[in-house]
Amino acid sequence: MNKIDKYIASSVLWAFLIVALVLLGLDFALTFIEQIKKVNDSYTIQSLLQVILYRLPGKLAEYTPIASLIGTLMGLGTLAATSELTVMRAAGMPIWRIGFAACQPILLVSLLGMGVSEFIAPIATQKANLIEKFQDQKNGDFSLTGGVWLKADGNFIYIDAADNKGKLYGVKIFSPYEQQLQYIQTAANAEHIEDSTWQLNDVSKTTFFPDRIETSSSSHADWSVSITPEHLFLASQEPSALSLSQLMGYNQYLYKQKLDGSQYELEFWMTALRPIASLALVLVALSSVFGPLRSSTMGGRIFSGVIIGLAFQNGLNLFGRMSVAIDFPPAIGVSIPIAICLIAGIILMKRRG
């Protein structure tokens, strides 16, 4: 039985790798076609390729559940097409044993995907985001899209980008006084000195008086703000660009500040529950291979896998976003479509054998 288990596991694993490679290739091609219009003198084709390649690890982790579903359908479907599954069943091998063998490689790649999501994808995605931010700085354009707004010490702060060392880029500080704008201070970048002290570089300050407006500039200026470099960096990133530990830590910080951290909590649970989602989809695939897709062609199995995968992903996004919109725990919202797949897969597996 051990050799048969390894044979089933290797079939599913190779199919998974092929599907993952195809999905990443399609994503690369479609993203390249969509983003090619952004290429100019400062944002070259090399920069675009860098951005796309840096984001591939995150895409790999994101595609793991769907690749698990289609890979299982392809791997076991190939065995079914050659009557190998029929021989295994005739030899007394129960369906649960075949399912257990198929789940082993999926569980392995899901755990590896979690490692990628925690240690590789965040760093790579953050580098890609920083490359795109530098494009705006080189052009001299200031765009609010993609940056972050913060409120600290009564001031409103806009940060265009930040790196993981705590350096900020494209900083604008709006200081109001009694519902009137007192001054606007801009800086090309800011570096943390110690505690709550920062140094602004290439500074321009516009002060608004009742009867006039004055503008001054300097190469350096001190800036005191009660926000840590870590929190500034995390605030400048999209939730999808953060690791599980960063999502959890920043969500706790927002909760202590009595700010809304539901988007970060939602992203945390969508990432944390990916291995369970992958196993749930494998159960659905197993019940389909031994059921309605038993005599289907390979193209039919792939098409069915794509439809089921899209339905699952849309359901996951729907319930997740709805939980945020109606102030419902995101963990429960994300768990609902996963639980439906698990229950449906278990029930169908019991009916098959």
From TrEMBL:
Superkingdom in the source lineage: Bacteria
Membrane-related topology note: Multi-pass membrane protein
So where does this one cross the membrane?
12-33, 63-83, 95-116, 268-290, 302-319, 331-349
Where found in the cell?
A: Cell membrane
Keywords (alphabetical) are:
Cell membrane, Membrane, Transmembrane, Transmembrane helix
Is Membrane set as a keyword in this record? Answer: yes
Keyword hit for Ligase: no
Q: What does this protein do?
A: Part of the ABC transporter complex LptBFG involved in the translocation of lipopolysaccharide (LPS) from the inner membrane to the outer membrane.
Q: Which family does it belong to?
A: Belongs to the LptF/LptG family.
Do you know which NCBIfam families this protein is assigned to? LptG_lptG (TIGR04408)
Task: Write down the PANTHER family for this protein, in alphabetical order.
Answer: LIPOPOLYSACCHARIDE EXPORT SYSTEM PERMEASE PROTEIN LPTG, SLR0882 PROTEIN-RELATED
Task: Summarize the subunit comment.
Answer: Component of the lipopolysaccharide transport and assembly complex. The LptBFG transporter is composed of two ATP-binding proteins (LptB) and two transmembrane proteins (LptF and LptG).
> What is the designated name of this protein?
LPS export ABC transporter permease LptG
In the record, what lineage is assigned to the organism producing the protein? Bacteria, Pseudomonadati, Pseudomonadota, Gammaproteobacteria, Oceanospirillales
